[in-house]
Every structure is written in C-alpha cells, then in structure tokens.
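In this section we walk through a basic example: taking a raw amino acid sequence and producing a predicted 3D structure, encoded as discrete structure tokens. The instruction is simple. Fold the sequence below.
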Amino acid sequence: MRAVHRARVATRRLRELLPVLQLDHDVASKLGRRLRKVTVRLGSIRELDVLMLGIDELRETGRHSDRALTLVADAVSRERSRVRQRALAKLPVGEMRRIARKLERIANELEQFDEADASASHGASRGWRWAIEARLAKRAKALRSAMDDAGAVYLPERLHAVRIALKKLRYALEFSVEMAGARSTPELQLLKRAQALLGRMHDLQVFVGRVRQVQASLPQPDLSLWRDLDALVAAVENSCRRLHARYVRERAALDAICDRVVPKRQAAPRRASPRQAAI
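The resulting token sequence is shown next.
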C-alpha cells in the first residue's frame, strides 16, 4: 500500500513540474499524458486500499456492527482484487520503468545543457523563478475559486474540488521552497494539514458511497442488517460534518496563504531561448 501511494504522489509531483521545465512542448505533453495514466491507474488501487484501512479503523473502535463492516469489507476486498489485476494488465511495471528512464535521460540532458551554456545560467535561473511564480499564481487562483464555489455548506463534490486544487498548490509551493534552498515554511505546513483533513473527509465520503452500494445490492430483505448499515452511514456522515467544520475554521488561513505564497510577479525574461520558450 505504501509503495502504491508513494508512486502515485511521485507521478503527481512530476506532472506539476513538467510544465516549467525547458522541454519541447510535444515531449512535455506526451510525458504528462503518460504520467496521468499512471496516476489514474494507481489511484483506483489506492482508493480501495484506503477503504480497507478505514474499515479496520472503524472495527477497532468497537462502536459499529461487525456484521455490517464485514459485509462491506468483503465487497471492497473482492473489488480490490479485480482492480489490481486489471491495473497490472493495463499498466505493467515495465511501462513505469520506461517512463522513469525517459525522465532520467531528460534530467541528464537538461544538466548537460546548463553546463554547456554557463553564460546563460543567470537567464535560465531567472526563467525558472518566473515560471514557478506564474505556476504558484495560477494554483492559488484555482484554490481560491474552488473554495468560493464550495462556500460554507457541506457539499462533497465541491469540497473534493477544493482538495484537488489545494494539493496542486502544495506541490507548486514545494518546488518554490526547494528552489530557495529551504525545507519547509509555515504556509507549506498548513497546506499539508488542510490536505490531510480534506483527504480524510473524502475517504469517509467514498466509504459512505460504498456502504450504500452494498445496501442496495442485498439479495434479500434483512431489516436488522439494513438498520446496521444505516447506523454506520449516519455515524460516518457525522464524522464528515465535524471534519467540514474544521475546514471552515481553516478557510480564512487558506485564503491568506493564497495572498502570501505568490510573490510579486516579475517580468518575463526579455529574450528566451527556444528551450526556455517551452515554459
């Protein structure tokens, strides 16, 4: 589970980085599409892995029907096996290794290009900073728009959009922080905490959907089991609303981050090489 999660995070970070590299547009687009395919395939596995972990956590509390949890766990386990087999067939490990080798070659080419053109190092550095700042501005604007759309009402789909926008801003900010030679900032730590909060809420929302699917697929009426499943859904939805209340309290701080993390926009480099123009 940990390896799948780390691989998926790596693909997301690489997709955020590609647009600001000095790459040919077609090369960057092709790599971005291939990485997105990996992200999606791994995501289908990761979602079911998280569901199984969540079921174990709920069982450990001892506050929910073991019969209901077992029924949901069996359904998720069967689906996870099918998804893993399908993902391995459509996304073999060899394909991911080929992508990794391609990225390594690109990294080596960029390093050799910078060493060969040392006179342009200042301009390249300026171009990097301008590109990262432009990316930060774009991601901050997207997060603020998603939060405005979500408002203060508990709307799962809109909150999911906030989570995705927040995650992308976090990755862009991580690149900016790393470029500055730092390890972290208060803004980055807050984004990580907010992402974890919204991620937990999303996982619980997905779990509720799975319980409803199991409930609808019961082969024969069982009033006792139906009530147990209803009670499980009610308990998890209450947890979602408590997490949402925490998000609403953090909203002002996230708004402030959107203002603070984006430095004053610098002018784009006056003259850019063809490789820099791909930014």
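Looking at the output, two observations stand out. The two ends are 35 Å apart (CA to CA). The chain is about 80% helix and 0% strand. In the next section we compare this with other chains.
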